[in-house]
Structures are given as C-alpha cells and as structure tokens.
Amino acid sequence: MLITHLSQMAALAGEREEENERFNTFLKNQPQDTIDEWVTNLNRTVETQIDCTNCGNCCKSLMINVTETEANSLAEHFQQSRNDFDAQHIEKGSNGLMIMNTIPCHFLTDNKCTVYTHRFAGCREFPGLHLPGFTKRLFSVFMHYDRCPIIFNVVEELKIKTGFK
C-alpha cells in the first residue's frame, strides 16, 4: 500500500531517520548497476500509481535552477522581454546562477504546472529516479524522502527488494 499523505510521510520519515541513515550506508556498498536497475523498475511501478497533481509538493517546496535557454523560452512564451521576465520571476546570483524567485513556484496553480510543456529541466527530471547513479545521489534522495511520495515509496520498496534489515 503506497503512502501518499505528506503528513504521514513526514511522521514516518522522522521515525525512520536512523534506519534511513543505515540504509544510506548499506546502499553505498551495493552494486550500483543492480541498484539502478531496481530503482528504475520500482520507479516505473510507483510513478504510475501516484498522481503528482494531487500533491504538487515539489513545486511548493523546491528551489528551481533556471538556464538562459529556459528563461528565454518562457519569456518568449509569455511574450515578454527577457528583462521583464527576469524581473518578475528570476533571482540571479553573483556567480551567474539563476533560480526562480519564489517558493512555491510562480507557475503552480491548483497543483498543476501552468507552463508544463515549457517547464525547467530540473522539473522534468524530478524526482530523478530514472537516472543512473542512484547511490551517488543519496544525499538528494533522502533530502526529498519526506517531500515526494514517489521517492518515499520507492525507497521503502527498495528496502524490501534489497533485504535491508
């Protein structure tokens, strides 16, 4: 049975903090290719059972990086100059890094992305469980464990699949 209620996930994450630290260490000592294959398959199964528009928590709580190309695309989509788009939506760091200037995201309405076909690469990839190198991204995985029902349930299923005790 999948757990999708954010408050329940948060409570369980708190209870399982020590267990998850041990699981993190355990995963680092497993064959990466095997873990990647299992995570990919678990993700396919879990992802099809979860409607992200019932949650939208990633869009409500994550800092989104923006590239020049993405900002240009959205400015064009909104028929705005880049300067106007940036002033309204972007925060620029001294190192040139650009991020969305609000959390939750400007483009989230009723848990749906209003610019879905133009969404940022980070949004397209999240939660990233389809990407190789799962055991090299465990910090990020566990940082989002209590925030994303897909990540939470894939991790819990992975504990079972790996025989973790």
Structure description:
With 165 residues, the chain is mainly alpha-helical. The protein has two domains: 6-58 and 127-162, no CATH class; 64-113, no CATH class. 53% of the residues lie in helices and 7% in strands. Strands 1-3-2 form a three-stranded antiparallel β-sheet. A hairpin with a 2-residue loop joins strand 4 (108-109) and strand 5 (112-113). Helix 1 packs across helix 2. It is elongated and about 55 Å long. The model has no long low-confidence stretch (mean pLDDT 96).
Topology:
Elements: H1 6-15, H2 17-28, H3 32-47, H4 57-61, E1 65-66, H5 68-77, H6 82-89, E2 90-92, E3 98-100, E4 108-109, E5 112-113, H7 121-125, H8 138-144, H9 149-162
Q: Give the termini separation.
A: 20 Å
Relative strand content: 5-15%
The major β-sheet equals: 3 strands, antiparallel
* Helical amount: 40-55%
Key phrases:
165 residues; mainly alpha; two-stranded antiparallel sheet; 5 strands; 7% strand; elongated
Task: Characterize this entry briefly.
This protein is 53% helix and 7% strand. With 165 residues, it is mainly α. It starts with 5 loop residues before the first helix and ends with a helix.
